[in-house]
# Entry
Amino acid sequence: MNKFRSHNCGALTAQNVGETVTLSGWVHRVRDHGGLLFVDLRDHYGLTQCVVDPDSPAFSTIEKLRAEWVVCLKGDVVARSEETVNKEIATGEIEIFIRDAEILNSANELPLPVFGDQDYPEDTRLKYRFLDLRRERIHNNIVMRSDIIASLRRRMIDQGFKEFQTPILTASSPEGARDFLVPSRVHPGKFYALPQAPQQFKQLLMIAGFDKYFQIAPCFRDEDARADRSPGEFYQLDIEMSFVEQEDIFNAVEPMLKEVFEEFGGGREVTQTFPRIPYKESMSKYGSDKPDLRNPIEMQDVTEHFAGSGFKIFANQIASDPKVAVWAIPAPTGGSRAFCDRMNSWAQGEGQPGLGYIFFKEGQGSGPIAKNIGEERTLAIRDQLGLKDGDAVFFACGLPQKFVSFAGAARTRVGTELELIDENKFEFCWIVDFPMYEYNEEEKKVDFSHNPFSMPQGGLEALETKDPLDILAYQYDIVCNGIELSSGAIRNHVPDIMVKAFDIAGYGKEVLEEEFGGMFRALQFGAPPHGGIAPGVDRIVMLLCGEENLREVTLFPLNQQAEDLLMGAPAEAPAKHLRELHIRLNLPE
# Structure
């Protein structure tokens, strides 16, 4: 190949025995076996075992080596004995007998080891990210990330999509998360914003007649970090299509995602046809619009069994307000007092007064609730839920919109504690039929619940004749294993419908013209029906790598405080730079 390498460290096999080769890489570790020195040499491609004895002229050089020194080794390929073959690595049938060694660079004492996979504090890992990225697991994750993105790009192009790059410096967006602002030197007092997403630009591309667009797009949002959300920036597979309905989006995206997860999923089962679950149904069955369908538990409404019953805590609430409901959370195999008491304690730790339950044994229900409502009602609940001896059921009571998140968390807790979740699957679904509007309790008004630019189901007629809180939108999410991969929508492409939609939420036409002037103006010059979606690349890679934190699949992430510990950002700007930008700081006390 060149003076440093005839082969890489993952290339040599038994077919190369007898050849003289040159390898370069990092010293993974050095082992002393009674006079023989073994060097595991590592590069991007793999690991090769090298060996030297005291008779070799390279021995004195090899004696000096320490972990992560960079070296060039020349020697002969020899076969390992049968008992020393290492089937865990591609080069495990051979080793290199070192004839010559050159130290290309030394390394200081390491702040964290590259060999092994010990867990180290986040700050150490991010400050020395270049070392962290040498570790096998995370190195492989980043390589897989590249392969996944290449596969996504290839599949989009094969479907006739064209990749276009949208601007990074743009105007501030009044909706969504906070923008990152960039001051303009030539326009004093004015700012660009980094795009939260290419949303308006990709719609403008459709209006410009480009038909099928995609982009592996960087997005920037000034928001707090979470395990499934990187602070600062993230990437998404941004997609938009013209002359489409909701089902056309599904038909383009669903096969592509299914195939990518089959390609990189390591044999794990992948949903073949993604079920369509209406938002309202998802909330009532799973307590979430991001349901983990690997968990077989489905909640049910059992209000009728408690109405007028002897369990007054629930019965009195039901009698006082027709909107009060009781939801049941089945717990297959959870029918023991010990488990039920653990769940009750967990609920109290979540700020709840407790978690009522019934568990079944010997054909009967047990527990305080069963005693209070009586055998007939208890068995009716059992039969409705399809439970049997050895099972249990938990209950949430009140106004569903107030307890739904807790009920969903309880469902997840039960499924996890009872090991009901199949970890060897990728369970996908579409969540559809999101409400167009919701009631804002703080401002005492109707407001958009999701994306204000979505097309309402029923169009202008629905906006003019229906209760706003009953109007659904052509909005949809893709969810996999309880993680939202993307949101999308069929866009509102008709100016009159958009004006009416904003008017219902209390925003006059002047707001549209002021805040979204470019988009609103474009819609008045022949906008086609169009829609799109934007699956999150980081989350796709996280799922396929079996990780629970985006940090493990991102090259140089910020920490939880949105700081780059490696490069030292954010940093103070020199006074000269601030003067050029006409900026004076007004720091907090």
Summary: The longest helix spans residues 136-158.
